[in-house]
Design a protein that fits this description.
single chain; 411 residues; alpha+beta; Gamma Fibrinogen, Chain A, domain 1; ten-stranded antiparallel beta sheet; three-stranded antiparallel beta sheet; 6 helices; elongated
Length: 411
């Protein structure tokens, strides 16, 4: 009898709990309806604001922002987490020997390979956002779609399957306001956590958007421009490959000199280089600004002349290389020296064939051409003061000012 009474009491409590949950569900549903209505009104205001905006500068035209209410900024799907829908191409790997990884031993990868889906969804940003592939040069409100990558015979082609009716009203969230066109990874940061991964950006001076890898570290989003790790991608490439970019954003890659130019001319950026040797030692070097000119100037590298503008381990390694970019098939005709890219087996910046840094050199497993004698070759991945060829390198940019730095010879 006591057991029956206890069960009845438990049933009553469960029934009361269910009724409470039903009531709470109705309240949440009502709140969701109200928030949806509010967001709809905000979207209309954003569209109207974009149509009526008169901008005096390309930056204002490119980055019209609209302040959102705190309620709208707090909207976030429950249990948000990074999306893992990105599909990566299969990479055939081969055992790494103690000698250089030659391009003959590995199939030459196509130009910069990018996945067709957004690989990471930052918390607080709708997961249905698409990339601005169809944005017109007039910079009217975005009508965009997710580009599908079609890659054959060393070329990158993108097609867009989204209709003209689809409109993106939010592309990147930054500190409580919406940047309609994300210039770089920092524009994609929001007040909610952002995850490292692939994203689409649209620099001010670019004719179309492109994909990049964003590295999130201590609350800051860096735009990665180069990565070496494993030696499976051949970096001894011609001018057109270095111009367009090559490799895989999730593996080894070069972002492309044209993209580097578009990024660095729109604002002031600092460059950080992360390096690891084969003993596991970590080194870094940082330049407080960097700029890459256009193709007509051979993608010349501009960096500080002042030694104290650099930090880290041998931070001033780039000072010697403040010159034009060179590949084995293309160089500035004003340079009277030999082709440095052929000499050092790379694509890199040079003023003379003096090597103080070469992060695109030949990959040597174990750090040496001959491990037993610990002998090196002049074409390896080099940073001065590091005693062996590097195992891993990451080059990344971070915007420090919204306006380009004005120095002699910089623009």
């Amino acid at each position: 009898m006591d057991e029956l009474q206890r069960q009845n009491q438990e049933n009553i409590l469960l029934k009361e709990e269910v009724e409470g949950l039903k009531l709470k569900h109705k309240e949440q549903k009502l709140l969701l309806t109200q928030l949806t209505s509010t967001m709809g009104e905000l979207v209309k205001k954003i569209k109207l604001g974009q149509r009526s905006c008169t901008c005096s500068t390309p930056q204002e035209e490119h980055h019209t922002v609209h302040v959102l209410s705190e309620k709208a900024a707090e909207i976030e799907p429950p249990d948000s987490a990074p999306s893992t829908s990105s599909t990566l191409e299969n990479v055939q790997t081969s055992p790494i020997s103690n000698t250089a990884v030659s391009p003959e031993a590995n199939s030459k990868p196509d130009k910069l390979v990018q996945t067709s889906q957004v690989s990471v969804t930052p918390a607080g940003v709708p997961s249905t956002l698409t990339t601005p592939e169809q944005v017109k040069t007039s910079r009217t409100p975005l009508t965009t779609g997710v580009p599908q990558v079609m890659h054959s015979q060393d070329s990158l082609q993108t097609t867009d399957t989204t209709s003209e009716d689809e409109t993106v009203t939010e592309q990147g969230v930054s500190s409580g306001y919406v940047a309609v066109y994300p210039r770089d990874c920092q524009d994609l940061m929001s007040s909610k956590p952002m995850f490292s991964g692939q994203y689409t950006i649209f620099p001010v001076n670019a004719s179309k958007p492109f994909r990049v890898y964003c590295q999130v570290e201590e609350g800051a989003a860096w735009t990665v421009i180069q990565r070496r790790d494993g030696g499976m991608v051949d970096f001894y490439r011609d001018w057109s490959d270095y111009k367009a970019g090559f490799g895989r954003l999730t593996d080894e890659f070069w972002i492309g000199n044209e993209h580097l130019h578009q990024l660095t001319r729109q604002a002031t950026y600092k460059l950080k280089i992360d390096m690891w040797d084969w003993a596991g030692e970590y080194y870094y070097a940082e330049s407080n600004f960097v700029y890459v000119s256009g193709e007509s100037e051979y993608y010349t590298l501009y960096a500080p002349d002042n030694y104290y503008a650099y930090s880290g381990f041998g931070g001033s390694g780039l000072r010697v290389h403040r010159g034009s970019f060179m590949t084995f098939d293309h160089q500035d005709p004003s340079m009277i020296s030999d082709n440095c890219a052929q000499k050092f087996h790379c694509g890199w910046w040079f003023t003379t064939c003096v090597r103080n840094a070469n992060l695109n050199g030949r990959y040597y497993s174990g750090g040496y051409e001959n491990i037993s004698t610990k002998s090196r070759n002049i074409d390896d991945i080099y940073w001065h003061s590091v005693e062996q060829s590097l195992k891993k390198v990451v080059m990344r940019l971070y915007r420090t000012q919204d306006m380009p730095k004005r120095v002699k010879g910089y623009r």
